[in-house]
């Protein structure tokens, strides 16, 4: 019969954090750079944790890395434990009215080239107010960000506002304009600015794999669905092949336009705009860091 688990120590928490990182990365090798320790040290930590818990957490060897059934249960239990620890830290922070803890943000890619840079400025202000704030950013499609906001893995997200979900709160930041582009190797490059959307009927285009506004859908309809991309960077890759046209935010395409590597089709007529919003979970617990970031974002008006 296995011995009951002893009280959790700081050392146990460090081992559990190593285990969670290895599980997220999928292997000891992939976790090395994230943890900043060697594979042999990770292996030693994992062995220590398995010994302290009295169970095998993962299989490792030539067949690859895989969690055991017990490992999956421990990972699930650790998520609840870490969330409880973070909740405790947040509540204590409120008592001290100090900024201390983690801020997990999910962003849609290619927002950093937006000239207004409201998110960057807000994060800079919060970091200047307290060096005890740890900011963790992950890049994901809007649908993934929404799911992770709802399940509590993310504190805040930023992405185009297309459809509002009842469980989330939206704070509009700015409008983002997108235009239809082709590369300098595309056959229509020289006359692109003189063409209308009717002239582009059936032309091979890259269709986004993320949600679009009704206005954007209408502009895509005359184009031929010749390729798909999950994000704006993927669209840019395919447009630059010279084989496709595709809609890109003007701030993101600007670098290639200035190098004469891209041009927009009839920029006065073929374009659409969408609002970028900062998004948080509705009815969330009070969190000083989130509140401060939102306050800074709203001051950028």
TrEMBL record:
Family recorded in the similarity comment: Belongs to the LysR transcriptional regulatory family.
Residue ranges occupied by any HTH lysR-type domain in the UniProt entry: 11-68
One Pfam family this sequence matches: LysR_substrate
Keyword Repeat: no
Alphabetized GO MF terms: DNA-binding transcription factor activity; transcription cis-regulatory region binding
Keywords: DNA-binding, Transcription, Transcription regulation
Keyword presence, Hydrolase: no
Stated name of the protein: Transcriptional regulator, LysR family
Domain of life: Bacteria
